Amino acid sequence: MKFGTKAIHAGVEPDPSTGAIMTPIYQTTTFVQAAPGDHKGYEYARSKNPTREALQKSFAALENGKHGLAFASGMAAIDAVIKLLNPGDEVISTNDLYGGSYRIFTKIFEKYGIKFHFVNMTDLDEVKATVNANTKLIWAETPTNPMMRVMDLDGLSEIAKASNILFAVDNTFATPYLQNPLDHGADIVMHSVTKYLAGHSDVIMGALMLNDDELHQQLAFIQNSSGAVPGPQDAFLVLRGIKTLHLRMERHSENGRKIAEYLKSHPKVESVYWPGFEGTEQYEIARKQMKDFGGMLSFILKKDSQDAAFEVLKKLHYFSLAESLGGVESLAGHPASMTHASIPKEERLKSGLKDSLIRLSVGVEDVEDLIGDLEQAIV
Prior knowledge:
alpha/beta; Aspartate Aminotransferase, domain 2; Aspartate Aminotransferase, domain 1; seven-stranded mixed β-sheet; five-stranded mixed β-sheet; 15% strand
């Protein structure tokens, strides 16, 4: 089954009682049993809900996986993965990481005795040198947020498998349409469904996709026990959003390419971070494991100051200044003061995240209007 067909049909069947083509919203907390333990597969909606079940099947299919799990947010999905670990375990992650991931690692789980190493994950030798007997998880993000660095999934998978380490990938920026980490040896794929999978800036949700049955049982146990599950209305909205994922990602990628090239040639822009520029090692890795390069990019002005960045952000019209990304509308953000403010400045600077950096989530509007918006703002 091709991706567009999966996006529309996987996990979804006409309602058997009415023939409704859209999965019903089962807005119920509990399910009647004929006798104790005699039920139709559903007992209590925290544990299982038919709308969420359909969505989880769709999640699995999108990532070429066997299992999918839906959570109340992307952070809840990350929380579940780290709960697989024990005090004394160690995690290797990238030094160019989403601020919320860094925060939950360092502010929540470090106090329970889990140690985190933040390394330059584009350097496989540095990753190998960090592995030790206590390493139990490699957590990658590719492309990274917001520096758009690309991790070699095959290389990281080889390191993980050589030492029997779990390998998890945050695939939010790429989406399953552009990249499938399970096909490159990842054990777990995580998505902030809030972003591209839902696609319309109206749902908060997270997801995990995987193949291993035992690992799925462990994560499903955590999902049910911790209770951070989405409601059926949100599940319905994401099922609807997924049906156009392939169409949206084609437009996001097309617009992203044109805006990246425009900014690269702009006389007042110093640097543009986007994985699709040819002639770099990052490009070669991205071309190997991605179908296209997406609609996320960041840039720094030649006038390298936070005030200069703020001036541009204040002038933008079609690019709305807001947290989040991946919706049909274009968004602009200032990571140092917004999405990555929880990371100490000295740590941000180590990864190249300057206070002057602007991140763009390029939407599906007419690209000429978006370029015109940037043109009138960057003066």
